[in-house]
Task: structure prediction
Amino acid sequence: MTRLEFRILGPLSVWTPQRRAVELGARKQRAVLAMLLLEPGRVVSVDRIVDGLWGADVPASATGTLQAYISQLRRALEPDRAPRTPPAVLLTQEPGYLLAAAGDRIDAVRFTTGVEAARAQRDPERAEQLLTQALANWSGEALADFADETFAAAAVARLNELRDGALEDLAEIQLGAGRPAAAVASARALLERRPFRERSWAQLMLGLYREGRQAEALAAFRQARTVLDEELGLPPGPELTALETAILQHDPKLAGPRSPLVAQAARTAQPARSEDAGTDPGRKAGNDPGRLVGRQAEQRRIADRIEPVIGIGMLLEVPDSWDYRFSHALVRDTVYGSLTRLQRARLHKRVGEALEAFDRPDDPEHLGRLVHHFTMAARLGVADRAVRYARRAAELAMAQLAYDEAARYLESALGALDPTGPGAAGERGRLLVQLGLARRAAGDLDGTRAVLDEALTLARPFGDDELAMDAATLFGGATLWTWRPYLTVDERMIAILREQLDRLGPDDVYRRAVLLGTLAVELYHHPDREQGEAHAAEAVRLARGLGDPELLARTLNNAWNVAWVPQRLAERRATTDELLAIPGLPRTVEVMARLHRMITEVSVGDVAGFDADLARAVRLAEEIRSPVLPAQVRYAQAGRAMLAGDWEAGERLVGEAFALQEHTSLWGTQWIRLAMLYTSRRFQGRAGELRDELIRSRTCSSCGRQRSWPRASPVTRSWRGRLSSAGERPASSSGAGTSWPSSGPSWPPGSAHPTPGSCTPRSSPTPTGSRHSAPAAPPGAPSGSRWPGWPRGWASPGRPWSTPRPRWPPTAASGPPT
Result:
C-alpha cells in the first residue's frame, strides 16, 4: 500500500512521507481524485466520474479526457514508477477506477473510524481522547475546493454532520467531566458554523451556567430564540425552553462536576475586545496615518455588514484566513439572482480586477476565474481582457492535451469579443482558427468545419492571405486518416488552396510545403488524386530541405494519407519509418505513425513488429485526452486479441473503442465496429447474429436510401457471400438504388474497415463534391458493374481490379479507408 497521505477534510491535498505536497494538476483532474477518495477501496465507474465532472454537459472527448487525467494522476502519485510497470495506487478495475490506499492514509477514514470508536467506548476519558484525535484531522470545510459540486454534496453533508455530532459528543463529555469552559468553547465553535443546532445551544447555556455565568447563559437562550425565529420561523424546542426555566430557577439538577480553577483560566485566556479589530493585521505602523484611518473605517463598515449575515448562517468564515464563503450554493444563487444584469456585470468586473492583483499567468484555475468574470462583464469595457485571458487559458489547456477545455475557453473569447472594435474581424478569424484546431483535436469535425467556413468567409473579402491560409490548412495537420467523408470533394477548398499557392513568393518555402501537403490531402477523393501524390512528395522534399522537424512530420503524414491505396504499401512503410525517426515527436503524432506502421507490419506478417509498436502506442495513448487515438489503439488491441483467439477480449475492446469514439463527429466509426465484430463472429461460426444490424447499416442517414454494399472491404465480400449462402441476403438487394457487385478491389491487407457504398439513385447523378458522388466505372472495370466512385489512380487499363486476400488479423488501427 502507498505511504502517501490523502486529505479531503479541508482543501484536497496529497502529501509524501517527506511532508512534501504533491502537485495534482488542474481542477477537473483533482476532482477525479476527490471522487475516488470519497469511495476509498471501492471501484468508481467511469460513468459516475464523467457525470461528476461534466453533469449534463458532457463533451465529445469526455472519456479520452478522463483517461488523460488518470494517466497524469498516476504520474503525480507514483513519479518513480518504471515504464510498463502496473500502477499500485490508482488502479483500473471494471467498470472504472479504484484508489488503493489504506484507511489510515486518508484523513476522512481516520476521522470516521475514530468517531465510531469513541462512541463505542464506555470510558469517558478514552472517548474524549479518541474524539479529539478524530477532530484533529480537520483543517477546514470538507473538500473546500469542491463543496458546491454535485458529486461532493452528499459526502460533504455526511462528513459535516458527523463532525458536528462529534463536537456535540465532545462537549457532552467535557460537561460530564467537570470542564464546563471546554464545553463552552466546543459549543461556540460549532454554533459559529451551525447556528440552528439546539443541542449545541443547550450545551453552551449549561456550560455557562456551571461556570457561574447565569446572565450569559440566559443571553445565549435569547440569541438562540432570535436566530430560530427570524431565520426558520420556529420557537425554541421544549428541551431548550425547559433549560431556560431551570436556569432561571437555579434548579439543583443543573449542578454538575465543576473545576473553578479551569474555568478561571479559561476566562483569563480570552482575548480582550479591541476597537482596532477591523485593522488589517498585515499593515505596518509606518504607513500614512490618513490612509490607515480610512482603511480602518472601510473595514469596519464591511465588517458591520458581514457580521449579521454570518450570524444568520448565510456566510461562513473560512478557517485560518480572512475569507468568507456562502453556506450553501442555494444561498449564493438566490443572492445572485436578485441582482439586475448591470449589477451582476459590475460585480464580475470588480471581482476580476481584484483577482488580477494575483500574478499567476500560468495557473489554469486562476485563469479560468479571470475568464469567467471578465466574460460576464465584457460589456463594461473589459472585453479585451476576457479575450486575452481566455486565449492564454486555451493555450495552457492545449499544452495539457485538454482539447475540449481549450475549445470552451475560445468559445468564451468569441462571445466576449467586441465586434465594433478595431481589427475585430481579423481577431475573430484568428480565434476561429484556434477554435478549429481545438475542436479538430477533440474529434469534433462538424464544429471544426463550421468555424473553418466562417474564418474563410471573413478572410477572403479583406484579402487577409495569412488568415485564409491558416484556415484553409487547418485540416492539413497530422491526422490518422483524411477528415473528409468518403468520396467527398470540396471544390471550393481546393480552389482556395490553389489560389494561395499562386500568391506565394518563390522564397516562401515553409508555407508552400504546408499548402502543398494540405492540397494533396484535399485531392484524395478527386479525379486528380495522382497530382495530389506529386504535391505531397514535393511538400516532403521542401520540408527536408528546411530541416524543420515539425513541418517534416506534418508533410510525411500528408504523404502517408495520400498514399493510402493498395499499390502503395512499400511507400507507406518507408514514410512511417522516416516519420518515426524524427526526434522529439509529439505523442499524438507518434501514436498515429505507429498505428500506420502497424498496418504494413500486419500486412507482411511481421507480428513481432506489430506487437512492439502496439505496446508503445498503448502507453502513449494513456497520456492523450482526445478520444480519437485511444479508440484506434483499442481497435488495434482488439485485432491482436482476435489473432490470439481471444474473441471475448477482442469484442470487449471493440466495445470500449466504440464507446470512446461514438460521441465524436468522425465519419465511419460505425463501420469499424461492425467490421471488427463481424470478423470475430465469422471465425466463431456466428456471423448470422449480426444480420439485422448489417442490413440496417445499409440505410443512409442523410437521404434514407439503401447504400450499395461496400465494394472495397474484404469484409464486404464475406458479408455478401456468407450471408447469402446462409439464406440471409436481404430481400431488397435487387431493388432500386442497390447493387451487389460480383467482384471488386479490397483495401490493403490488414485493414478491417468497410467503406460506405454509394446510395445515389442511378437516374440522378450527384454533383461533384457530394458525399455520395458515384462517377462512372473507371477503365478496366467489369462491364455492367456499378462502381462507387473510385478516384483516379486506383485502377487503370491493364491493372486488375483485385488484390490478394487480406491477411489475418484485421487491426482497424488506421480508421476507415478514405
Notes: Residues 388 and 413 are 8 Å apart (CA to CA). The mean pLDDT is 74. Strands lie at 5-7, 13-15, 44-45, 90-93, 96-99, 315-317, 324-326. The longest strand covers residues 90-93.
